[in-house]
Amino acid sequence: MNIVKTVAEVREQVKKWKSEGLSVGLVPTMGYLHDGHASLMDASKRDNDRTVVSIFVNPMQFGPTEDLDSYPRDLEHDSKIAEEHGADLIFNPEPEEMYHDNFSSFVDMTVLTEELCGLSRPVHFRGVCTVVTKLFNIVQPDRAYFGKKDAQQLAVIRHMVDDLNMDIEIIGCPIVREADGLAKSSRNTYLNAEERKAALILSQAAALGSKLVQNGETDCTVILNAMKEKIQTEPLARIDYVKIVDAATMQQITVVDRPALCAMAVYIGKTRLIDNFFTEDIGNGGAA
Ligand code: AMP
Question: Is 39 within a domain?
């Protein structure tokens, strides 16, 4: 497995693979890889002849008061995980390689980015759409893999690919969790022992909401109130949002009468964590 830092090196490698008729999968990440990322690599390996993993902590998707500088990084550890999961190439550019001094083109999206994380993190999805478009243009993959952990991101990318006629298949992969239910995340490393315990409230609230829907509850107020009450039993937790939206448009709904996403962002101490469930996945373990 090769680790490259320049766009030119990725292009050269991918061009060679394509000339041999090989298919290419892309797994975009910010690194500090864990089993969630590994599941995306496994899926890419299953579907494609070659897999490219990008590791890039994208400054453009962080707001001015967010954790860009403290975001965990460990390329040595990441290359071990990527190698173990069959990646063929890691693309690990420096910010200057992705954004030269006079960089001034952006990919932005309305509607789908107006709720949930888009509301709490105003510049986030512009940064995500721009960097993912750049990665798609650089790697030109046949397929790209995204986790349902970042459910709004997955919906936004699917929509962008459709809107802008990008010839790439987007594959959504189930949330990978710790044994006790906490969704795996690079940001879990910020949690101290007490916060790590408290963080379980997210998956517990998601399980409660999911159970209510499974039992036939369709009133979003009832579902959301039950989830919020549950989260509020945890003294270290502070709710950013808990909402139910249309799974395709990401607009809030009041009745679960169509495929929906129930998503939350909750601060545990200073760490902002997210979790969610799609109503369509209830009972099938979150399969794509
Ligand atoms: P990140 O490095 O956090 O930007 O994540 C890179 C990709 O991995 C995104 O598509 C995430 O949705 C996905 N991902 C992160 N955590 C998980 C998880 N626990 N389960 C499944 N996918 C995940």
Answer: yes
Domain boundary among 143, 173, 203: 173
> Looking at the structure, do residues 159 and 275 belong to the same domain, yes or no?
no
Atom of ligand 1 nearest to the CA of 30: 2
Asked whether residue 146 is assigned to any structural domain, the reply reads yes
Same-domain status, 194 and 61: no
- Assess whether 207 and 111 both reside in one domain: no
For residue 222, report the distance from its CA to the centre of ligand 1, in Å.
Answer: 30
Tokens of 188: 């879990």
Q: What CATH number is given to the structural domain containing 237?
A: 3.30.1300.10
Q: Please, what is the average pLDDT of the chain? A: 97
Atom of ligand 1 nearest to the CA of 176: 20
H helical segments located in the chain: 7-19, 35-47, 75-84, 95-98, 116-120, 124-139, 151-163, 193-198, 200-214, 220-232
Tokens encoding 41:
């690599």
Do 3 and 75 touch, CB atoms closer than 8 A?
yes
Centre of ligand 1 from the C-alpha of residue 80, in Å: 17
Give the pLDDT score at 54. 99
Q: What is the pLDDT of residues 92-126, one digit of tens each?
A: 999 999 999 999 999 999 999 999 999 999 999 99
27/280 Cα distance (integer angstroms): 24
Pick the catalytic residue from 34, 37, 85, 124: 37
Beta-carbon count within 10 A of 73 CB: 14
Q: Which amino acid is at 140?
A: Q
Q: What is the pLDDT of residues 56-78, one digit of tens each?
A: 999 999 999 999 999 999 999 99
Determine the structural domain holding residue 35 and report its residue range. 2-173
Tell me the mean pLDDT in the region 158-183.
98
Number of domains in the chain: 2
| pTM score | 0.97
If you measure from the C-alpha of residue 194 to the centroid of ligand 1, how many angstroms do you get, rounded to a whole number?
Answer: 24
